[in-house]
From TrEMBL, chain A:
Assembly and binders: Component of the eukaryotic translation initiation factor 3 (eIF-3) complex.
Name of the featured protein: Eukaryotic translation initiation factor 3 subunit F
UniProt biased composition (Low complexity): 310-322
GO MF entry, a single one: translation initiation factor binding
Automatic annotation (TrEMBL), chain B:
The protein, known as: Eukaryotic translation initiation factor 3 subunit H
GO biological process, one term: formation of cytoplasmic translation initiation complex
Single GO molecular function: metallopeptidase activity
SMART domains: JAB_MPN
Iron found in the keyword field: no
Binding partners and assembly: Component of the eukaryotic translation initiation factor 3 (eIF-3) complex.
Length: 350, 373
């Protein structure tokens, strides 16, 4: 989805807006986080049946000089649009912004989104509202993100900033020139595991996926790597058999990759392997021992100890209870020391 | 566990992809502080028992300690505890209600159905979690869940997202607030029964599925033209980025941090357990002391009464000891129960980790030392 097109940004004469109220039209780079896109798509699904598009506010961070904008979050804003007029719930927008800023104090208002690729007069009006002084993004330009959500078509996203246009001040209020700016979709390290699970559901009929265990994930990753290795080795074999066309660049790349393989002594590997496998097993063993001990201690604490006398009368029961507790204390303590030793041992090995 | 799940009004939880992303982002942003927030959604109409989590929002950061101590006085002003206690703070309840009111206007399923929290290495079974979940679940009809996202484990590969509810037996016991040995004997409540885990599935919307198909996923299958040189190859747009699925992070071989952390946490649990035991022993000792005193007093009174009978004087009452002596209060066993459950959680986690890591290690060994398999 990230646009690979190149952008050319041209300076142009500005409209008649009063000097000083001019938002900057310097080019900027926009980074969109998947969370924002997901949220926009969700909003598009929940739009009122009679509305073509819905809009919302984009939140995110801006670099100090204002040339990098990261869209991190967004929320929906109710609006109604007819052929003649557009109404945006300003009050809602303001209050929602405040609620969001309370939870995410570091994010700022960066612009707005619409769920259709069309730009029209109303877009210009809303754009000017978001870019205005006071509540808007001024002196930075408001970013407008459009995400097309036509069923059956590819989802296309575009980002714009705007420049004032129009002959008179009145005309300038409801018109503006949208300037496309480059944007890309980026995800963070932390989101990777989530995206993995989400995209593993994309080929399924019911579009859902149970949480996969670590072992399953490992298995899939290994299968995938093996497939890729197979593909490469088939190609290399074909080249050797003079069936496929050789490429020096590919050869060089493969050589570079192969030279990354560590050269280590077999004895070292053997030793490291044994050390580590022992660590793992010791910790696993200890954890389970502790679990058993604690289970035992809980059972002893709540079991009605009778010692075969039939019924435990209060006084006796109390006495034996205490015995049980004392025993428990001893065991718990021993478990603790055992854990401590295990750790020291492990640290020596590491 | 399986039986417990049958009785629960909620049998499965379906989480929208949006919620997963929001949760991960929030947790990553606040790590290592606990991130908490509210879940909204509804019970599925066609499938009773399936809870659909369709959206969520974070609770505001807690800066004002004064706003947040109506149930939590013993937790001092520790910031960590405040963040963990956020879901039941008054200020946040107001925030939640307001947020839900606004979300309703844009057609989000505006019912609160629980809360989420982030954790590290499964270290989430504590009084805070229990109190939060109890707060949401105390109403018998309340279908509230707790979603727990493990930041540390998710960073090692596959996503760790779990849904929990308190078991009805535990809720009943917690309402009474009595966790004495006698009560536990009678109710048969054990630490296994505190939390019920509910299976979680991830669900994508149609639009999202369509978007995902546009994202880079796999190496192109068709024949590509050859790059002229190495630099061109590195910049080639056809060179696929690592796909989301499968995630190569799960091939990572770093095991020491995990083991170290687990050991630390286990030690901590054992220490807690030990403290609780000492408390209990102290109670037993003082109880025995008091009882010895009472017996001595009773014998003295009996002897006195015998002397009085002999001298035909009126008898002194024999049950006066109830006023004179006060038996010590038995300390609550709740902390011990939670601690035990926490240890069980760690042990299971280690088992799962061992399974994966031994496989990887043997694979690496055989790969680096071919011919020795």
């Amino acid at each position: 989805m990230a646009d690979k097109e190149s952008f050319l940004h041209l300076a142009r004469p500005l409209g008649p807006a009063p000097l000083g109220a001019q938002p900057s039209t310097a080019p900027l780079n926009v980074v969109v986080q998947p969370q924002a896109i997901f949220s926009i798509l969700d909003h598009a699904l929940r739009r009122p049946a009679d509305q073509e598009r819905v809009i919302g506010t984009l939140l995110g961070t801006r670099s100090e000089d204002g040339t990098e904008v990261e869209i991190r979050n967004c929320y929906a804003v109710p609006h109604t649009e007819t052929a003649e007029q557009v109404e945006v719930d300003m009050d809602y927008q303001k209050q929602m912004l405040q609620l969001h800023l309370r939870a995410n104090p570091r994010e700022v208002l960066v612009g707005w989104y619409a769920t259709s690729s069309d730009l029209n007069t109303f877009s210009a009006l809303i754009q000017n509202f978001y870019g205005q002084q006071g509540d808007g993004t001024w002196p930075h330009p408001a970013v407008h993100l459009t995400v097309s959500t036509d069923p059956g078509k590819e989802i296309e996203s575009r980002t714009y900033i705007s420049a004032p246009i129009g002959v008179t001040a009145e005309r300038a209020a409801d018109s503006c020139l949208f300037i496309p700016v480059p944007h890309e979709l980026k995800y963070g390290e932390a989101e990777k595991s989530g995206l993995e699970l989400i995209s593993s559901a994309k080929d399924r009929e019911d579009r859902s996926q149970p949480i996969i265990t670590d072992l399953e994930a490992l298995e899939r990753a290994i299968t995938h790597v093996l497939e890729m290795l197979d593909r490469v080795s088939t190609y290399v074999n074909n080249v050797l058999d003079e069936e496929a066309e050789p490429s020096s660049a590919l050869g060089q790349y493969l050589m570079n990759a192969l030279s990354l393989a560590p050269k280590v002594d077999a004895a070292d590997i053997e030793r490291d392997f044994n050390n580590h496998i022992q660590d793992v097993l010791v910790v696993s063993y200890l954890a389970n021992t502790i679990r058993t001990q604690i289970d035992l201690s809980n059972r002893l604490a709540t079991a009605a100890l009778t010692l075969g006398t039939g019924d435990a009368i209060t006084g006796d029961g109390e006495q034996q209870q205490r015995g049980g507790d004392r025993q428990r204390g001893g065991r718990g303590g021993r478990g603790g020391r055992g854990g401590g030793q295990g750790r020291q041992q492990r640290e020596q090995e590491a | 566990m399986a039986d417990a799940l049958k009785d629960s009004p909620i049998k499965a939880v379906q989480v929208e992809a949006l919620v997963v992303m929001k949760l991960i982002n929030h947790a990553a942003k606040t790590f290592p502080t606990v991130a908490t927030g509210s879940l909204v959604g509804m019970e599925s109409l066609d499938q009773p028992g399936l809870l659909e989590v369709t959206s969520c929002f974070p609770f505001p950061n807690v800066d004002v300690p004064a706003s947040d101590d109506h149930r939590d006085n013993h937790h001092n002003n520790n910031h960590k505890d405040l963040a963990a206690a956020a879901p039941r703070a008054k200020a946040n309840l107001a925030y939640q209600n307001e947020m839900i009111k606004f979300l309703r206007e844009v057609n989000v399923d505006a019912n609160n159905i629980g809360w989420y929290t982030s954790t590290s290495m499964g270290n989430f079974i504590n009084l805070n979690t229990i109190e939060n979940q109890f707060f949401y679940q105390k109403d018998p009809n309340e279908k509230a869940i707790a979603l727990v996202h493990d930041v540390s484990r998710s960073s090692q590969g596959s996503l760790s997202l779990r849904a929990y509810r308190l078991s009805p037996a535990f809720v009943a016991a917690y309402k009474e607030g009595k966790f004495t040995t006698d009560n536990l004997q009678k109710s048969g409540l054990r630490y296994h029964d505190i939390l019920i885990e509910i299976p979680v599935t991830i669900h994508n919307s149609h639009l999202l599925t369509s978007l995902l198909h546009q994202l880079p996923s796999d190496a192109p299958k068709e024949e590509l033209s050859f790059p002229p040189n190495l630099a061109a190859l590195l910049q080639d747009p056809n060179t696929p980025e690592p796909p989301f699925f499968p995630n190569y992070d799960s091939l990572d071989l770093a095991i020491d941090p995990f083991l170290e952390k687990t050991c630390d946490l286990l030690l901590e649990s054992i220490e807690n357990h030990h403290t609780e035991l000492n408390n209990h022993q102290y109670y037993q000792r003082s109880l025995a002391r008091e009882q010895a005193k009472i017996t001595a007093w009773q014998q003295k009174r009996k002897a006195e009464n015998a002397a009085r009978t002999a001298s035909k004087q009126p008898l002194l009452p024999e049950d006066e000891w109830q006023r004179l002596f006060k038996l010590p209060q038995e300390p609550s066993r709740l902390e011990t129960l939670l601690n035990s459950r926490q240890v069980e959680q760690y042990a299971r986690q280690v088992d799962g980790f061992t399974a994966g890591v031994t496989t990887k290690m043997f694979a690496v060994k055989n790969n680096l030392l071919p011919g020795e398999s």
